[in-house]
Design a protein that fits this description.
Blueprint lengths: L2 H24 L2 H10 L4 E2 H7 L5 H13 L3 E6 L5 E6 L1 H19 L1 H22 L1
Keywords: DNA-binding, Transcription, Transcription regulation
Protein name: Helix-turn-helix transcriptional regulator
Pfam family, one: HxlR
């Protein structure tokens, strides 16, 4: 293997690693909820807390920081007393939300079929276990 091909493989591996990290970040349970909640316009922290069921304050704060770091959320601080902070989708996040909305719509449309497939699979798995035991 030449030095040039090793460099190309290293760059390709680095790119795949970064891409995987971004996909993992935006596909996480909390990220999807936060992004979808913010898709309706600027939203405050407490509104996000209510809009994303089950999220802890710590997880919400971490999720917001990560999404802001990745350029998906814009954080605006207003100099009022007390300070007012709003989060809004960036242009790239708005594009991402279109894909997330399509994915969640697909999941809702096929929810029953997926549940039936799971039941059939689990039932077949149980039958095989009983025959073997």
């Amino acid at each position: 293997m030449t030095a040039d091909s090793r460099d190309r493989n290293q760059r390709s591996g680095d790119h795949a690693c970064r891409l995987s990290e971004v996909v993992e970040r935006v596909s996480g349970k909390w990220s999807i909820g936060v992004l979808l909640a913010a898709s309706h316009g600027p939203i405050r922290y407490t509104e996000l807390e209510r809009a994303v069921p089950g999220i802890s304050r710590r997880m919400l704060t971490l999720t917001l920081r990560n999404l802001e770091r990745d350029g998906l959320l814009a954080r605006t601080v207003y100099s009022t007393v007390p300070p007012k902070v709003e989060y809004a989708l960036t242009d790239i996040a708005a594009e991402l939300c279109e894909a997330l909305t399509a994915l969640t719509d697909w999941a809702q449309r096929h929810e029953t079929a997926i549940e039936l497939a799971r039941q059939a699979y689990d039932g077949a798995d149980e039958s095989a276990a009983q025959k073997a035991g």
